[in-house]
C-alpha cells in the first residue's frame, strides 16, 4: 500500500514536471552573440526526393537529368554597429531581404542553441539548432497544414549551387518563349528573361499573373539551375539544353508542387495584354463593403472617398508580387501626393476565419508602414473572390488593379504584376502614370 502511494505521488510529480517543461520549452534570448558567426552562409531546403524523370522521344532521350531536390539560397548574418542582436540578409540576384524579427538562445526542450527566423508578413518561420557553424531545422508555413521543409545552413560558404565554376557548355542569355505544364489542363505560357555571365545566371519568368521574382543560379555543363527563397515562396528550376537548342526541365514550388517546363529562344516573345484579361460586366458604379482591422465596416460610398478617383488593389498579404506592387504604389503616392486619388487594398487571405486573417493584415500594415485603407475581403480562392466582386467577369491573379473614376465606375483593370525583377517594369510605371493622368482629365 505504501509503495503504491509513493508510485502515485511520483507519477503525479512526473506529470506536473512534464507540463512545466512544455511551458518552458521555448527559446530564451541570450545577450551573447558570438555563437552565431557573422558573414556569408549557404542554406538549402531539402525537398522530397523524387525518382528520375524521363521526357521526350525514348528513341533519342533516355534521361535528361537526375532530379535534384535541394533548393539553395544565400544569406548573410550581420550585426549592426552597437547592436548585440543580428539581422539576416537574404540574397536573390539583385534583391536583398533584411530580416530582423529573430530570436536566438537556448531551447530548454533540446538543451541546444536555437535560432527562430520570423517572416511575419508572409506568416512563416525558420527554426533551427545552431552548433559549430551549422544550422539545422525546418522552414514552417503557418497557413498550410503541417507544412514543414527541412532546412540546413553552413557558415562560410557563398556559392549557390556549386563552387566548381568552369567553362560553360551553353549560354542562356536572352528571351525564351516558355510553357509550363504543357499539354495539361492547367498549362500556361511564360516568357523567360535570363542574363548569363560566365556560369552565373540571373533572371525571371514573366507570366500573365505575375513574375517569378529574382531568380539566381548557375549553368553546370548543359544543365541550368535556378532558385529563389523569400520567406513566402521556395522555387527551384532545373533544365537541360536539348540538341535543338530548347530547354526542357522541372519546376518545383516547395515540397507540394512539381511540374514540367519547356522553352525556346524567341526575342519577340510576349504575353497577353494585362489590361484585357479581366473586365467589368457593366458600366455601373462598383459596390463593396468590407471590414478593416479595427472591425469597422468601410464602403466605397463613404464620404472619405467622395469625389475622388480610386485605385482598388486586389491582393493577399501572403503574396510577394502583391508586396512588390504595394511598394511601387507607396513610392508613387510619396512622390505624387494627390488629394484627389484614393488607394484601397482588398485582402484575400489564406485563412477562412476572421481572427487569423485580421492578424495577417495587421502584420502587413505594421511591417510595410502603409497608411491607406486596407480591408479584409475574404478567402483567397479565386472563386470566392469573384463572389465578393460580382461585377468582374473573373479574377485570375493577385494582385489585380482596378482603376475607378470619381463615380466609382471601372475604367481599366490591370491583371498580375511583373515587377522590378523584369525588364517590363519601367514600361508599366510609365503606363500607370498615364492612366492616373487620364482619370483626372477625362473622368
Count of discrete domains: 3
Strand segment tally: 26
Widest sheet: strand order? 1-6-7-8-9-10-2-3-4-5
CATH fold naming of the largest domain: Glutaredoxin
Look at the structure and give the CATH class of the largest domain.
Answer: Alpha Beta
Commentary on this structure:
The protein has 443 residues and is α+β, with helices and mostly antiparallel strands. It has helices spanning 2-24, 320-335, 354-368, 382-388, 425-442; strands spanning 27-29, 39-46, 70-78, 87-92, 95-99, 102-107, 112-119, 124-131, 134-141, 147-155, 174-180, 188-197, 200-207, 210-211, 215-220, 223-229, 234-241, 247-253, 257-265, 289-291, 297-299, 309-315, 341-349, 373-379, 400-404, 410-415. It folds into 3 domains: 25-155, Beta Barrel (Lipocalin), CATH 2.40.128; 174-265, Beta Barrel (Lipocalin), CATH 2.40.128.120; 289-442, Glutaredoxin, CATH 3.40.30.10. The chain is 18% helix and 39% strand. The N and C termini lie far apart (91 Å).
